[in-house]
Design a protein that fits this description.
single chain; SH3 type barrels; Alpha-Beta Plaits; about 60% helix
């Protein structure tokens, strides 16, 4: 009877202790958050309370369950101890990841609140994302290795595993060459500032915005909402365009084929009128010039500027549409034409031909 009473007493005491400790921890974190509103760290640490409760409950049960002296529990004492040890290791890994995430995110939030430069924010955001993935992967590997050591059979073969670690490492390195290459490429992208989350890039003839960066792949969201996923080694081994590098403002061109009689001076004035009424134009610069000629047309190039790639696309489309419409309405002769008039012969050729036919 005493053993039956000890079991609920131990279980209830462990649950009460975990709940009370979690409540006290939450109370302290809320008070710290109220005293230090300039940092979100204390409020973010409150997300760690579920892991803390599980960790405390498992630790108390792990220490107190041998004292219950309940016969069924005593018969399976080794199995229960291993299960509690596995839960304890998992809860510890969970808590470490949560605490690290809170510290990293609060640091980034404070940095973002004091920095106005978008390029630096994208760089730090990319680095923070990859750092968290690295920490999570390392903690998961250590936790998995610790869980395996709980079983005696794995500890018995530990010596042989260590002895063959060199050979296995070589074999694994050869087999996972591409994976390891992507892994190191991910480090290079994160800390080499090659490409960042939010950058506008052109890869494989498609332009889009970098949406996600991991240790192995990178996702680009195109203008039509498609996602292009490619290994990060692509960006370290091949050239690509990064339109956000050195500032996101851009200069674009609009080409028009016109007749040789096109009023270029009036087209410059019309370009100024169009851009003055275009919200996408940032006012940094504009120009219009004849850049090439052919036997039938001239090539007119209009230059426009915008603060980002999206506005540049809008400004180019507006200039192209309105210039063509203005030429068609006011100066239709300036549009490209196909000459269909009768060919003019050289002087004297017609008389010679007529004399020959007469003869």
């Amino acid at each position: 009877m005493d053993s039956l009473l000890r079991l609920p007493a131990v279980m209830g005491g462990a649950i009460v202790l975990a709940l009370v400790t979690g409540w006290l921890t939450d109370l302290l974190l809320r008070r710290a958050d109220a005293r230090h509103p300039e940092t979100p760290l204390w409020n973010m640490l409150r997300r760690c309370l579920p892991a803390v409760r599980v960790l405390l409950l498992t630790a108390v049960l792990r220490a107190a369950y041998p004292q219950t002296e309940w016969p069924p529990l005593r018969q399976h004492e080794a199995a229960v101890g291993r299960i509690l040890s596995l839960v304890l290791i998992g809860a510890s890994a969970w808590l470490v990841v949560r605490v690290t995430s809170a510290v990293v995110e609060s640091t980034y939030a404070r940095y973002a609140s004091g920095t106005r430069e978008a390029s630096r924010l994208r760089r730090v955001r990319t680095q923070v994302t990859l750092i968290m993935r690295i920490v999570t992967a390392v903690v998961a590997v250590i936790a998995a290795a610790s869980m395996l050591l709980v079983f005696p059979s794995f500890r018995a073969v530990g010596t042989s595993l260590l002895a063959s670690a060199g050979i296995l490492g070589i074999v694994a390195g050869v087999a996972a060459q591409s994976t390891l290459g992507n892994l190191f490429a991910g480090f290079q992208i994160a800390f080499g500032d090659m490409v960042r989350i939010g950058d506008t890039v052109v890869v494989g003839g498609e332009w889009g915005v970098v949406e996600e960066v991991t240790l192995t792949f990178l996702a680009v969201r195109t203008w039509d909402e498609r996602r292009i996923t490619m290994p990060v080694s692509y960006f370290t081994g091949r050239p690509f365009e990064n339109w956000s590098r050195g500032g996101i403002q851009m200069t674009g061109t609009v080409f028009l084929h016109c007749d040789h009689t096109a009023p270029v001076a009036l087209m410059r004035e019309k370009l100024k009128e169009i851009l003055d009424g275009c919200e996408a134009w940032d006012g940094r610069g504009r120009d219009l010039a004849v850049t090439d000629t052919t036997p039938t047309t001239i090539l007119v190039r209009a230059v426009v500027t915008a603060k980002d790639p999206d506005d540049l696309w809008t400004a180019r489309c507006a200039v192209r549409e309105q210039l063509v419409a203005w030429l068609a309405e006011k100066h239709p002769y300036a549009l490209p034409r196909v000459t269909t008039s009768t060919a003019v012969s050289e002087p004297g050729t017609e008389q010679a031909g007529a004399g020959t036919r007469a003869g």
